# Entry
Amino acid sequence: KFLGVTARHKATVNGRAISVEPGETLLQAALRQDIDFPYVCRVGGCGTCKCKLIDGRVREMTETGYLLTEDEIADGYILACQSTPRTDVAIEVDLKSALAGNVVRGHIVGKTALTHDISRIDVQLEAALDYRAGQFAELSLSSLPGVLRTYSFATPPSADNKTSFFIRRVPGGQFSTRAVDGDIVGEAVQLRGPGGAFWLRPGSEPVIMVAGGSGLAPILAMLKDAKARGETRPVTLLFGAREERDLYALDELAVLERDWPAFTFVPVLSAVAEGDAWAGERGMVTDYIGKYCGAAGAAYLCGPPGMVDAASSRLRTQGLVDEAIFADRFV
Ligand code: FES
# Structure
């Protein structure tokens, strides 16, 4: 048994005492004890649950380097959803930053299969939800009360309050199975958000983007938004998928390539059989960062944690600093 991991600890959150069960994160403990702690993703992907460690020590389950600034880390900031206490701890958090206030209702007005396991759902909102392309929201379906999942907006904000999400069927996943396989057109939905700090920063230096699976959603929203704003800087998008049948949104990406001369799309397939006719890049998408990084001054990464972490370390070896690497990861 590791010292600290199996012990129950005490924590104080803004001075209020709570207990933390063995293996429980500070976020789980706070929510269990009815503290309205800010969070969205619960997996170390959004930064919403950041809080300041005033006293004690924690074990951190993931690297926080690209969600927190160097100054924040130096000041003792941690992610509550990724921290389990090693000792009794005291933390401070800005409880006003919770997303709870921004709730908008809507209906599902369309569903399209993008691949064998990813569907696009189109939502008509009843009111405007002010978000930036690249951010995400927490969704709930009226048929699954109490089941909350976060997904990135796949389209930029629009004047008609329509938005879309790409949802991948996760084996055994209640929400995603219902969304991908169920007859959900017409069903009521509720969105809470937006969350996250993943959006395209202004600048003139070339940009590299790396997406995996349904991680294309926020990237596509960013690209469409950027093009609509007349973006001209060079952007290279590496998209990692297993096989050709896992590629999607190719028409939309082709339109972007046609209308934005400095935009380049590079699909990379990791599971094509030898002898297959696929003429594009093969292997792990992160292995192509060196080849396509060029003079990139900023990077935007969205996909599973393993991909995002591998891409971040490749980009650092290419000379990018943490402040120039923006990431959104999900499980
Ligand atoms: Fe902790 Fe998203 S809720 S990083």
Summary: The mean pLDDT is 91. The longest helix spans residues 216-228. The chain has three domains: 9-97, 103-195, 207-329. The chain is about 20% helix and 30% strand.
